[in-house]
Amino acid sequence: MQIERINKGQWGKIRAFFDLRTDEGLIVKGFKIVEGATGPFVGMPSQKGNDGQYYDTVVAEAELKEEITRLAMEAYGSDIVQSGAQAGEEPPPIGDDDIPF
Hints:
By secondary structure, this protein is mainly beta. It has one helix at residues 62-76; strands at residues 2-11, 14-21, 27-36, 39-43, 46-48, 54-56. It has a 4-stranded antiparallel beta sheet with strand order 1-2-3-4, covered by helices on one side. Strands 5-6 form a two-stranded antiparallel ribbon. The longest helix has 15 residues, at 62-76. It starts with a strand and ends in a 25-residue tail after the last helix.
């Protein structure tokens, strides 16, 4: 398993979007690294329902989710530990390639 593509930035609490390629060649798009109250975590791909809530479209067992989290944090780098932008620093501009879907 490997991270196929990662787009870093700041979109609210979201710090990055990434895709995951399995050893079998399957690519799953739409993972995200989210800055939570207790630190960063990996959010699974999700879709907005008719009720306005978001629902996971991919479900993984705990062991697999831990492996995905480890890979994502390695790919993102150590700067995920530092939450928020530095004083006076603007987030990077969002280009067409940065759109998460």
